[in-house]
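Internal tracking record. Fields below are filled automatically when a chain is submitted to the structure queue. Please do not edit lines marked as system-generated. If the sequence contains nonstandard residues, flag them in the REMARKS field before resubmitting.
Queue: standard
Priority: normal
Entity type: single polypeptide chain
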Amino acid sequence: MKNYITTSIIMAASTLSVLAQPNNIHLHPASGNVCDVTTISVGIHGNSFQPETYLWSTGETSAEIEINTSGTYTVTVTGYMGNSSILNTMVLSETYNVLPSPNISALTDLWICKGDTVRLMAVSGYDEITWSNGATGELFEQRLNLFTPGTPGLDTMTVSYTASVDKVCTTKSKSVLLRAIRKPDGVGAFYQGKMNIKTTDSIPAGLVTEFLYPVTYEMNFTEIANPSNVVKYVTAPGSRKAPASILTPGASYSVETIPTINGKVFCSGIPSIIGIKATGNRLGLGFTQEEGESIFKVYDTQGRFLMEKQGMEFNMEWLQNLAPQMLIVYREGQSTEVTKIQIVK
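SYSTEM-GENERATED OUTPUT FOLLOWS
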């Protein structure tokens, strides 16, 4: 009688590796331009392949990685095809050109005077650029005229843009802050056209409203009767007043205010006209007391003779019945020298 021995053989899954490259497995996106920070991943269409491990040329072992440097990236993927027990290995490789970060280059100052235009430039290379105000393209142009009554004189606008590559990836720039600064009047509203400012008064510069830095004002007083005489005064940071004592009593001036914000000069505005009142009832500064009498001849600003008086000093009361608001007085002393001084009534 024959003896039969039954042997059970258990077949383990093969560890034999087979190099494969099915058409439905690839890297996404395909090679070409990509955003400054882009995710690339292994794309598998269908369920004919079950990946087990990933190994990228960067050393990472996840199904997707982020890249921010141009170059060739390779991933080795191992897994099973369908119901096969044979381990398959695939090597996928693509070359990418990583575009620059979407920075904003300022072609003009970011702080500008109201009514001026600011220009910005995006980076090149992206297929589509959309700015936060809805404009498209690499160049951004915006006229900043944001001021309306009741709002601050210094307005702001935040600008950024998004950039995309063929709808493969999208990235966004950091924001920049634009400031539109109102052009100031020469002097404060109450003093505009005021012709009887006392030498003891302080004359405020036209106001520039600002939030971040104290404003320094340069005030230029140009004497109307003598334009070559320009008196300059620079206020302390945070102050905006000039003492009227630096000006000549009886003279009138065109005043221009130029603000300096954070070390930058801005927006000289429309000049204002002011006049400095003569001291008391006398003409004050500008006439030198001499022995003997002088002859005072009064003309209007068109050069027409109005009156003549003789005395030791000029008395403003002599002008009470004269209509012109701005008068010219010539003083003739014992010498041949003639002094010309402008009076504002």
